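Hi support team,

I'm opening this ticket because the web form for multi-chain structure prediction keeps timing out on my end. I have pasted the exact lines I submitted so you can reproduce it. The total is 465 residues across two entries, so I didn't expect it to be a heavy job. Is there a limit I'm missing, or should I split the entries? Thanks in advance, R.K.
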Amino acid sequence: MKKELSYLDSVHRDGRIWNLSVMVILLLFPVAVGLIFHAGLDWRGFAFGMLATAPMYWAVGVIETFTFVPMLGAGGSYLAFVTGNITNLKAPAALNALELVGADIKTEEGEIVSTIAIAVSSIVTTLIIVLGVLLITPLTPVLNSPALAPAFDQILPALFGGLGVVYISRNWKIAIAPVLLMLILFIAIPALGKVVSIMVPVGVLFTLAVSRILYQKNLL
Amino acid sequence: MQFNVNHPVLFLLAGIIVLVVLAQSVWFLRKAWKRGMEIGMPMGKLKRIVIGTAVFTIAPATAIVISVISLSKKLGIPLPWMRLSVVGAITYETPAAANALSAMGLEWAKVTSLSATEYVTVASVMTAGIMVGIWLVPVVGKKLISGMINLEKRDKKWGEIFSASMFLGMISAFLGYVFCNFAGVFRGELSGLIPPLVMLVSALMMGLCALALKKLGWRWMNDYALPISLIAGMASAIPITAWLG
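Hello R.K., no limit was hit. The queue was backed up. Here is the completed structure from your submission:
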């Protein structure tokens, strides 16, 4: 008799099928363009372009996978790693939704909440981008206006100010050490601003280490 | 067929990919919603998640449209549209495209048009250069999630602290990032104060929302506190930048 899959197992099965299919389709885009327009790949340009791009972003990809999968749950992760914009949109959306309903990501309810939040965020983003593409001519002068530029330049501080105050106020004992460490590091070494993706796992590992010590000393 | 970066065929190809990814989101949304109902999650709760997330997403998604507009000047509309709907982020796409062009002896700032070969090469580098997450999650995702669940089973309290620590680790990195130009303030460059002040406005607005929820009993505020503080922070950036920028 065929064993019935649990919800989580079926999410992994579907996620694997979807992600690997999307990967193939994405790789087919340049192939299709080349075939349709009878254009080959500039192999030298591709090789050197990859050499300049891949080491950094493949490393970031590996780090992000191990950092964000435990935060976003299974369904949320499969979706977020396909739809992108994880740190500035999908992870905050999931965190906010979990906070909203008081769910823990390690429970089935948390898994469902995170998946719904990331799916909705992806759908809304896709639709807004489609709208933006359709209305690109009238929208360009508005969205590119110097008056609005500072607002869009400061989206990350505006996002993490609100999100930070919620999490820090709830877990201030855990938060003190990593927040201080990161403030010191980023103020002392401004160039770290260019590799914030790499600093996320540094922050996570440091926070876990501090929390473990505090927990073992019964301070949490 | 004469190639140009806004050729209708490119719109068609990009549109197909965007549709597939949209279908994946709808698939997972339906699946999670159905399971939520099965385990007895109230419909109202599920609707709150949907509406709260949709409202929160509007401002960051608009920022992504700006990235599409910005990249479209060099790469046409279809490629940035597809890249930023799938996987990408402006912080990755521009350097990846610039690296590919540079490897072909072209300069990002000076490019006004692309040949089909250049376009195919740029699209290939942009695609292959950020593919890791898509295939690595299927490879390691199940083990990572199982590890988290087992951790919770072994020690529930530590499991909860573990989750909170991971979120706080990420948040602390971004709080630090907000201060990455702060050192300039000591040399009289006040623009380094703009991101911390914007963050402060956003944090204060979140505090006000919490106060309204507690003191005035505005329960709806709970669902919209993050989008409200996000918009307040972004709006405050305009006068703050005019003052210090």
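A quick check on our side: Chain A is about 80% helix and 0% strand. Let us know if the file doesn't open in your viewer.
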